[in-house]
């Protein structure tokens, strides 16, 4: 293997130096878009040398018009297989077959001569988005559609790079850049409510001698506060492996990350509570700085008559929900948020809702 090159950089070089010349030679008037988007640590810019052991290497996606896809995809695949170099920038361009015993993993395999089992993936924009999100990107979306889209998949669609665009790939990606305003507010309100439902529990668990429970809930609250920060900064939330790394790219992380780290390693519930309190107030002030609701006092107070300190985060949830204008979102009547937020109490303790979820298991 060659010296490590970030996957997005490698993909762009692979397209410009290896794939594009072949297209120019055989398909001079061809309209297409070329990109590296979708799944993969390199798409998000988190790949390292470790990433090169599977599903990583010289690859690019070619998006064709639907009529051209039907007519040319096999010919394109065959020509690329015959004319691509067997090695590019020190990496094989030849991929092994998907390993059925290992979740379809593909690895680079060196060969001395072609044909190459390449990963110049030939697609259409419509089929790509349909596979990720289950919708036709050219149809109008309503607010309920948006609640069904996992943010990791929205990130897969909007991250990465487009290297050439004779079709409408950039336009389609722009359509999914972020949630519509009312959907964003609904998700934001739901996230505040999730925090409100557990903010007194680190102390309550510790009070009955359950320090493990106190630590677990502190970690849950840190996770939910981090996710709240993504929402406040209108940035899609990645799945758990990249949550911390992506959080470090947010503007608010410089101040909040040290508080979260200290809270997670604190020896006593009082110390956890003090650090979480500072984080609550900082995130509350961040909310206020956006001016989306009336100003809400971002100060922790005693939880009812008990000794625990809380932000009373439901105040932020209710104020945010009050500015949602869409009738369909207001009619939901529960702070369940989008599919990424279904582990909150509003989603999992309402029997009418959980019974309806039976369809998910059929």
Descriptive report:
- The protein is α+β, with helices and mostly antiparallel strands and 362 residues long.
- It is 50% helix and 7% strand.
- It has a four-stranded mixed sheet with strand order 5-2-1-6. A two-stranded antiparallel sheet has the order 3-4. The protein has a two-stranded antiparallel ribbon with strand order 7-8.
- The radius of gyration is 24 Å and the shape is elongated.
- The two termini are 46 Å apart.
- The model has no long low-confidence stretch (mean pLDDT 93).
The gist of it:
The chain is an alpha+beta fold and 362 residues long. It contains 17 helices and eight strands.
Secondary structure elements and pairings:
Blueprint: H1 7-26, E1 32-36, H2 41-44, E2 60-64, H3 66-83, E3 87-88, E4 91-92, E5 120-123, H4 125-133, H5 143-147, H6 151-158, E6 161-165, H7 169-175, H8 181-196, H9 201-207, H10 211-232, H11 243-247, H12 253-265, H13 269-290, E7 301-302, E8 309-310, H14 314-321, H15 327-332, H16 345-348, H17 351-356
Parallel strand pairs: 2-5
Antiparallel strand pairs: 1-2, 1-6, 3-4, 7-8
Helix pairs in contact: 8-10, 8-14, 9-10, 10-12, 10-13, 12-13
């Amino acid at each position: 293997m060659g010296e490590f090159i970030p996957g997005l950089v490698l993909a762009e070089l692979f397209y410009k130096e290896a794939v594009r010349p072949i297209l120019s030679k055989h398909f001079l008037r061809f309209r297409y878009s070329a990109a590296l988007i979708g799944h993969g640590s390199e798409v998000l810019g988190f790949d390292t040398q470790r990433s090169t052991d599977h599903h990583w290497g010289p690859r690019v996606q070619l998006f064709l018009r639907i009529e051209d896809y039907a007519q040319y995809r096999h010919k394109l695949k065959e020509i690329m297989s015959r004319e691509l170099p067997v090695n590019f920038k020190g990496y094989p361009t030849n991929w092994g077959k998907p390993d059925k015993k290992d979740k379809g993993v593909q690895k680079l395999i060196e060969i001395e001569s072609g044909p190459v089992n390449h990963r110049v993936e030939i697609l259409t924009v419509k089929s790509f988005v349909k596979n990720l999100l289950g919708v036709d990107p050219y149809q109008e979306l309503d607010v309920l559609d948006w609640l069904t889209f996992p943010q990791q998949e929205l990130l897969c669609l909007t991250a990465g790079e487009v290297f050439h665009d004779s079709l409408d790939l950039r336009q389609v990606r722009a359509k999914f850049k972020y949630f519509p305003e009312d959907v964003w507010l609904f998700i934001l309100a739901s996230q505040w409510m999730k925090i409100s439902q557990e903010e007194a529990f680190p102390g309550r668990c510790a009070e009955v001698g359950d320090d493990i429970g106190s630590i677990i809930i502190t970690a849950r609250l840190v996770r939910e506060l981090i996710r709240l920060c993504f929402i406040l900064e209108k940035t899609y939330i990645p799945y758990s492996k990249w949550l911390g790394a992506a959080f470090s790219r947010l503007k608010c992380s410089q101040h909040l990350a040290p508080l979260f780290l200290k809270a997670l390693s604190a020896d006593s519930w009082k110390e956890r509570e003090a650090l979480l309190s500072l984080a609550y107030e900082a995130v509350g002030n961040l909310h206020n700085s956006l001016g989306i609701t009336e100003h809400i006092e971002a100060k922790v107070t005693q939880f009812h008559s008990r000794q625990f300190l809380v932000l009373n985060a439901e105040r932020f949830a209710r104020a945010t929900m009050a500015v949602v204008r869409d009738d369909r979102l207001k009619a939901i009547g529960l702070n369940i948020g989008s599919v990424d937020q279904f582990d909150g109490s509003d989603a999992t303790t309402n029997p009418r809702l959980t019974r309806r979820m039976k369809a998910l298991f059929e």
